[in-house]
Amino acid sequence: MTVISENLNLGCGDRLFESTEAVAWVNLDKFDRKGVHIVSDIEDPLPFTDNSFHLVMASHIIEHVANYDQLIQEIHRVLKPGGVFVVRVPEFPCHASVADPDHKRCFVPESFFHLTPHNIGPASKPHLKGLFDIVYINVLKHNKPELDDGQLGRYFTEIHCELVCLKEE
User: Which of 23, 138, 133 is nearest to 9 (CA)?
Assistant: First the structure.
């Protein structure tokens, strides 16, 4: 069997993905640790050629980035046309979105609208408009009984968004 999907696990931390015969994963993180294939800071340009990946996974990492615009453009650059960008971030105003002092920004589901070709989102970011289109977005409520005071999702709700890369082949 040949590899049919080459994927990037961006800012993987300890959430490592293993490759199979059909799916190749590259685990990238700022810190050198077991299971990390590429050590690189996502605040810098990504160390890959254009159109390298079918999928980029960014789970609980983009809220930590100071230069959001550059990272989004880099993800777009390394994705193949029609590739998928899967992003997971804490949803504001859940406590988890603001509890971590390393978070640089907060997100609501509409935070991803400015990446689409539609006339929505901030006019101040025309360089990001049309890079992606949203194919799926949902808010997941997590049960953290020790933190939620009995209210499902009070401490932690998560946005799961899947975007397709829009660019010419």
Answer: 23
Number of residues written out for the chain: 169
Q: Which tens digit of pLDDT belongs to each residue from 55-65?
A: 999 999 999 99
φ/ψ (deg, to 5) at 100: -85, 115
Question: What domains sit in the chain, N to C, each tagged with a CATH number?
Answer: 5-165 (3.40.50.150)
Burial level of 119, CB count in 10 A (0-12/13-18/19+)? exposed
**Which two three-digit tokens encode residue 77?**
């650059």
| CB environment 42-63: b (16+ within 10 A), e (fewer) | beeebebeeebbbbbbbbbbbb
Taking only the tens place, the pLDDT of each residue in 136-147 is 999 988 777 676
Positive or negative CA dihedral for 146, 147, 152, 157? negative
**C-alpha distance from residue 65 to each of 44, 120, 143 (Å):** 10, 23, 26
**Which residues are within 8 A (CB) of 149 and not within 5 positions of it... i.e. 6 or more apart?**
none
Q: How far is it, in rounded angstroms, from Cα 108 to Cα 158?
A: 9
